[in-house]
Write a structure and sequence with these properties.
CATH architecture of chain B: 3-Layer(aba) Sandwich
Strand content of chain B: 25-35%
Number of domains of chain B: 1
CATH superfamily of chain B: HUPs
Order of helices and strands of chain B: EEEHEHEHEHEEEEHEEEH
Shape of chain C: elongated
CATH architecture of the largest domain in chain C: 3-Layer(aba) Sandwich
Number of strands of chain B: 13
Distance between the termini of chain B: 60 Å
Oligomer: heterotrimer
CATH class of chain B: Alpha Beta
Helix content of chain B: 25-40%
Number of helices of chain B: 6
Largest sheet of chain C: 9 strands, mixed
CATH superfamily of the largest domain in chain C: HUPs
Largest interface: B-C, 80 and 89 residues
Number of strands of chain C: 17
Shape of chain B: globular
CATH topology of the largest domain in chain C: Rossmann fold
Number of domains of chain C: 2
Structural class of chain C: alpha/beta
CATH topology of chain B: Rossmann fold
Largest sheet of chain B: 9 strands, mixed
Chains: A mainly alpha, B alpha/beta, C alpha/beta
Radius of gyration of chain C: 22 Å
Helix content of chain C: 25-40%
Chain lengths: 704, 263, 328
């Protein structure tokens, strides 16, 4: 007992001699960190405005879900588990680390709330936390050096591998854990220390046991060294983190708090400037680094280089020159280079042509897979669109896109076809029961067809099928016909904001003038535009939602498929699925068709793989190694399916093309959900061929 | 360098079939959209690239009416410094020579080092550039697909000739060049750019202001007159195969083999 | 009527195909008017050309000058002005040279100018009745050309069929002395020959030629497979080269190569004049196009309205099937 008290007294004295040093390290470390963070803040202060201070409750909810709850991490099981353990460990250890730091200058400091019994429990838990973190570090280092997961690899054009830096940081954290544990152990290894709540097999426990018969002076030296080591490594890490991907440790909470709240929406050209005043804005889009908003810059700081975004990016998989991960990393490196710790800050260099290439930015299909995957909620689509706005503003648009853009301007569709021919599909024989709304004709529901379904020979059958379904479920619907313009969805996402606004305003005028109470569309891009880019129009639904509702209410019944040999799979279109979370409605429609065997591809729902893109992307000539659509049809084959069902006309174009290019002709087909549904509609209990739909797709009866 | 580009507003007929109007003397123009002649747009882009390299200004001129202002504004939005419209009833009905005469009168009002036209417009006449050069006594080159500015008031140019070959020549300034499509990649001009120049002034001239006598141009002076448009009944037409795809393929191969087209 | 002159181009002593066509065109203008071939150049090549022309022209005017060794339109214009009488009608082929020479010449001669003439309807008073095409060949127009002070006309290659028979034993008249100083503001430097490319389409008997209808670079393989099966080569029209789906050496047309195959499959090609100008020798032309109104169907021997992306692979399979059966 006395020994114990004597020992305890000497423990207190061990650090006294170091107090001035520790204090100095505190001051230097703290001041350096403050200086570093202040310098890192400078570009954010020069950045564009971004209002992210609204809806605090919703934002806090997301912090709980994505930051504290690590919600996205388990999407990659091994790395996810590792990170959850490490993060959990850090959170738990926070109070302990703080205590340890203070103790060097105020020996009797105890964290409020962690005295007595609570303190013992806390120590017990954190002993294990430190151990787990150390084990995770060892595992992580091994993983980096030996197993080398593919997504961490750095393609040659982006520079050297990041392995060295990663391993360095992991090692430092490991050292920190060891120092902390040694510090604990040295204190407890002394004679007469109470062994309450011993944390068996934790690192501190192991060290303590190993040090059991060490002399007190040696313990004292170990104690001192561990403390000093801990403090030095702690402050080194603190000050080093803002120079690399580990900055996410500090920025992640803020990045998630300030993250975008909705999906499918786009930031305006400039926050705070509404459409009528846009012509006062001198320069559109992002041309220099400072044109990004502060939140976008925070995104660059927060990127953890985990590579999950690029691992799911279809453009990257196709061999296009785009890797979302490197959009962030290159911008971050740019920020570090031009906003250094000392010296001149800022640079007016244009980003396109220096850190980014034009092709890189045009390659994106805005599918959103990157954003769906990122654990830090880093945003990509807004940045790509802003960079495109900058290029459009400077006239730097690829030649292949100029013609469709001019056509959209002069004729309201990218094909340059006449407005009056837009509704020809509806008036073709046999009649499909679609009326064109005008001064004499009105309806409750508007069927917004959009350009490709209106003008493309193959896709007009989706229009007819949709019309048939709407009639069958009793919707009084009509189309705008020649008054309809392209929804402008891709026009906006390709950076041509002015043209988009012109198209939108024409459409809104026509929609309002028609007096409809609701809008239905079979085109997910149009759906997204009408839902998120347009304002003051009636509510809009996708045809799959209408069908799902009608199936539920019994209005829509299907007759069994003639052949049960086929295996169907549903391909989630990006703008129906990921951007608008409509996953189950299309599936419930398919499952309501008797005799239909359905399988899921391994990439489905929010992990669906983009078909290649819609709208203007169909005109862009990308430099790629393999088409996204070809990859997708191979995934369907792998899943054992020979019929791909999709609910988007652009997916249909890309997948049908891909079936040919992949050599699957005759072995696999693609069909639209509306086409399939229209084909299988059961009229009043009778199994008759639905009248007036003579162009029914030939039922797919192919050998497996 | 002062560069003048002579441009023209033409109907866009690439995607839509042309139909004749009821009277049969013109095409139905009501639903056509118009834009600058493609080759002229390439010419303006080339001019802009040249002044970006060596300094100077680009002026775009067209002969027509109020409707034609839109192409001038589009080119100004692209970067041309000045737009000029020569509008006068007296110009109506001019043939190619008439247009060249009008343009020559305009050129003589100012000093231009280099004059561009597009190789041809929708009437595929390919004439105004060459005529203008002869009237001005400037050297001329057609089908130009590359322009390089040399020291001493000369250019090195390339012309597109048969077989995809290029004829390289040196030409003295001032000169007239007719520019072929594909010479460069024109920059994009969107609605925003055009709105920005919506109220920029466009100089307008009448024939009197250009010093042209009445009757020197226009329908009365035209030596070449288009009488009407028609769709000819072609003498020979292809034998169309109208069976199923399979049948067509079989018949086709029969014919190809007969003609010696299969090993 | 005043004299009609036909300006004839030549290369390495061989006379251009247009010589016979211009003679036929002149006949349509006025079969009684004196027709004179006009040739410029230098040395033995020029002499050989003149001799060759004597078979189809009664009179050949030769202008020899060292500065005319390379056909520079600016120089030639000056030479011709020293030689042509007022009020003459001058014909030339509508090609890269005619476009260069014609307009300026008409101004200097104070004569009318009509280019790319595809039909001649004879003389009506002081007017010559002509036919031209506009809008890429979609429509034709009737044109009246006042020839009271002469005219310069460029004639669409292939629009008038030359007779080919030997009619004359014409005389060559040397007009070289009539030209004055031949300095101009444009000086020829050199000709850069187009890259040879991997395949010489001019050497193939069967050509699978693709146009805009192929829709993309990745579909070119469909045409290549058919060409392989048929033992031919893939060629194309200008839009395919502009879009960079094939290299320039594959282009057939007035600014590309001239080909003389036995069988020419025009797949997804609309049939513009500039393209067809490169197809010579009257091959068996097959046109496959989605658009039943494509001008190519007026030029082809056999036409099929179909989507080439679907038609060609099936055609290739059938060809391979047939070859397999034949034991190849």
């Amino acid at each position: 007992m006395l020994e114990g008290m004597q020992f305890a007294a000497s423990v207190t004295s061990w650090l006294v001699s170091g107090r001035p040093l520790f204090l100095l390290i505190h001051i230097l470390g703290g001041a350096s960190f403050a200086y570093i963070v202040a310098r890192r803040m400078v570009p954010l202060l020069r950045a564009e405005h971004d209002p992210r201070f609204d809806r605090p409750v919703a934002r806090l909810g997301r912090v709980l879900k994505f930051w504290l709850g690590q919600w996205k991490h388990p999407r990659y099981k091994v790395a996810g588990t590792l990170h959850i353990l490490i993060f959990g460990g850090f959170v738990l250890l926070a109070a302990r680390a703080f205590t340890v730091l203070i103790v060097g200058v105020a020996p009797n400091f105890v964290m409020p709330g962690l005295s007595g019994k609570a303190g013992l429990v806390y120590e017990f838990l954190t002993d294990y936390a430190a151990t787990v973190v150390l084990l995770c570090m060892i595992f992580a280092i091994t993983r980096r050096l030996v197993f080398k997961p593919a997504r961490y690899a750095v393609p040659a054009r982006y520079g050297k591998a990041h392995t060295g830096d990663a391993v360095f940081l992991l090692a430092l954290i490991a050292i920190l854990m060891v120092a902390d544990s040694l510090f604990e152990a040295a204190k407890e290894a002394g004679p007469g220390q109470p062994a309450e709540l011993a944390s068996f097999l934790s690192l501190p426990w192991i060290l303590k046991t190993a040090l059991a018969s060490t002399s007190v002076p040696t313990l004292g030296r170990l104690y001192f060294s561990a403390y000093l080591g801990h403090e030095v490594v702690f402050y080194f890490l603190l000050c080093y983190r803002p120079f690399g991907i580990q900055f996410h440790v500090e920025t992640s909470l803020f990045n998630i708090y300030f993250a975008k709240l909705g999906t499918g929406t786009l930031k305006p050209v400039r926050w705070g400037v509404n459409d009528e005043h846009l012509n006062e804005v001198k320069s559109f889009g992002v041309k220099r680094f400072e044109d990004f908003t502060w939140k976008h810059m925070l995104d660059f700081y927060s990127c953890a280089d985990c590579g999950r975004c690029s691992d799911n990016c279809p453009a990257y998989a196709a061999g296009r020159p785009l890797s979302p991960r490197f959009i962030s990393i290159k911008a971050r490196d740019y920020a570090f280079q031009h906003y250094p710790m000392f010296g001149h800050m800022g640079n007016d260099k244009p980003l396109i042509g220096s850190i980014y290439s034009a092709d890189e930015i045009w390659s994106c299909t805005t599918c959103g897979a990157c954003e769906a995957e990122c654990p830090l909620l880093v945003e990509y689509i807004d940045k790509i669109v802003d960079l495109r706005r900058g290029m459009v503003d400077d006239g730097k648009v690829p030649q292949s896109l100029q013609k469709p853009l001019q056509a959209l301007e002069s004729r309201g569709n990218p094909y340059g076809k006449m407005e009056k021919k837009r509704a020809e599909w509806a008036n073709a024989q046999p009649p499909c029961g679609v009326k064109t709304l005008d001064k004499q004709t009105s309806a409750d529901t508007l069927y917004f067809v959009d350009s490709i379904t209106s003008y493309d020979d193959r896709l007009q059958s989706i229009g007819r099928a949709t019309a048939k379904i709407l009639n069958h479920v009793g919707e009084d619907s009509g189309i705008l016909g020649g008054a309809e313009r392209d929804s402008g969805h891709e026009v906006r996402r390709f950076g041509e904001e002015t043209l988009f606004l012109a198209l939108r305003d024409r459409n809104v005028e026509a929609i309002k003038g028609s007096g409809v109470k609701r809008i239905v569309t079979a085109d997910p891009h149009a759906y997204n535009a009408l839902k998120h880019d347009y304002r003051d129009i009636p509510p809009v639904e996708h045809i799959s939602q209408v069908m799902a509702g009608a199936v539920k209410s019994g209005k829509l019944k299907f007759k069994p498929l003639q052949s049960t040999d086929n295996v169907y799979t549903y391909h989630d279109p990006c703008y129906l699925g990921r951007h608008n979370q409509i996953y189950e409605d299309p599936r419930s429609v398919l499952d309501a068709i008797p005799g239909l065997t359905r399988v899921e591809m391994s990439r489905s729902r929010d992990r669906s793989f983009c078909c290649g893109g819609g709208g203007l992307m169909l005109f862009y000539e990308a430099k790629e190694e393999q088409r996204m659509g070809v990859k997708r049809v191979r995934m369907a084959e792998e899943a054992g399916a020979n019929v791909i069902v999709t609910a988007c006309p652009f997916c249909m174009v890309n997948l049908e093309d891909a079936i040919k290019v992949a050599g699957f002709e005759g072995k696999m087909t693609a069909i639209d959900l509306a086409e399939l549904a229209a084909q299988q509609i059961m009229n009043d209990g009778k199994n008759s061929e639905s009248a007036g739909f003579a162009e029914a797709q030939e039922e797919v009866v192919v050998g497996r | 360098m002062e560069i003048l580009v002579c441009a023209r507003r033409v109907p866009d007929t690439s995607e839509n079939e042309l139909v004749l109007n009821c009277a049969g003397n013109d095409i139905e123009r009501d639903e056509l959209v118009y834009s600058i002649n493609e080759a002229d747009n390439y010419a303006v882009e080339e001019a802009l690239q040249i002044v970006a390299r060596v300094g100077g200004k680009v002026t775009v001129v067209t002969v027509g009416g109020e409707d034609d202002e839109e192409i001038l504004r589009r080119e100004m939005a692209m970067g041309a410094n000045k737009g000029v419209l020569i509008a006068d009833e007296a110009c109506r009905g001019s043939d190619g020579r008439g247009i060249a005469t009008i343009l020559k009168a305009f050129v003589c009002k100012d000093k231009y080092d280099l004059i561009f036209t597009g190789v041809q417009a929708e009437d595929s006449a390919a004439q105004v550039g060459g005529m203008l050069a002869a009237m001005l006594d400037y050297p001329f080159a057609s089908l130009v697909n590359s322009v390089e500015v040399l020291e001493g008031n000369r250019l090195k140019i390339s012309r597109e000739i048969e077989g995809g070959n290029k004829e390289i020549s040196e030409i003295d300034l001032p000169c007239v060049l007719s520019i072929q499509t594909g010479i460069n990649e024109p920059r994009y001009v969107g609605m925003r750019g055009i709105r920005a120049v919506a109220s920029a002034p466009i100089s307008t001239y009448t024939t009197a202001e250009l010093g042209l006598e009445s009757g020197a141009v226009g329908a009365a002076a035209a030596k070449v007159k288009r009488v009407d448009y028609f769709v000819p009944g072609f003498g020979k037409s292809a034998e169309m195969l109208e069976g199923s795809r399979k049948e067509n393929i079989e018949k086709l191969l029969e014919l190809v083999i007969a003609k010696g087209g299969l090993k | 009527m005043a004299q009609i002159f036909a300006y004839i181009t030549h290369r390495n002593g061989a006379v251009d195909d247009s010589a016979a066509e211009l003679a036929a065109a002149a006949k349509s203008i006025d079969a009684t008017a004196p027709l004179i071939a006009l040739v410029t150049g230098w040395g033995p090549d020029l002499d050989n050309a003149c001799t060759a022309l004597c078979a189809s022209y009664a009179e050949v005017w030769k202008i020899a000058n060292q500065t005319l060794a390379y056909p520079n339109a600016e120089v030639i214009r000056k030479a011709l002005l020293g030689v042509l009488p007022p009020g003459a009608t001058v014909l030339m082929a509508h090609d890269h040279f005619g476009i260069d020479l014609g307009p300026g010449l008409s101004v200097k001669l104070n004569a009318s100018y009509v280019s790319d003439v595809s039909g001649i309807g004879g003389i009506d008073g002081t007017d010559l009745k002509l036919v031209r095409q506009e809008f890429g060949g979609q429509v034709s127009t009737h044109v009246l050309c006042d020839i009271s002070s002469g005219a310069v006309l460029t004639i669409r290659p292939g629009a008038f069929k030359g007779h080919g028979e030997v009619f004359f034993s014409g005389t060559v008249i040397d007009k070289s002395a009539g030209v004055g100083a031949l300095t101009t503001g444009r000086r020829y430097l050199q000709t850069v020959v187009a890259e040879a490319g991997t395949v010489d389409i001019t050497k193939h008997n069967v050509l699978v030629s693709i146009g805009r209808g192929i829709q993309g670079k990745e579909n070119v393989a469909i045409a290549q497979e058919l060409a392989d099966a048929l033992g031919g080569a893939v060629s194309c029209s200008r839009p395919v080269v502009d879009a960079k789906w094939l290299e320039k050496s594959r282009q057939v047309g007035s600014s590309g190569k001239t080909v003389k195959p036995k069988v020419y499959l025009a797949c997804g090609i609309s049939g513009s004049f500039q393209h067809l100008a490169g197809v010579k020798g009257n091959p068996f032309i097959v046109a496959i196009n989605k658009n039943p109104k494509a001008p190519i169907f007026h030029v082809a021997d056999v036409g099929i309205v179909d989507d080439i992306l679907e038609f060609l692979p099936e055609l290739t399979s059938k060809v391979r099937e047939m070859q397999g059966v034949a034991g190849k």
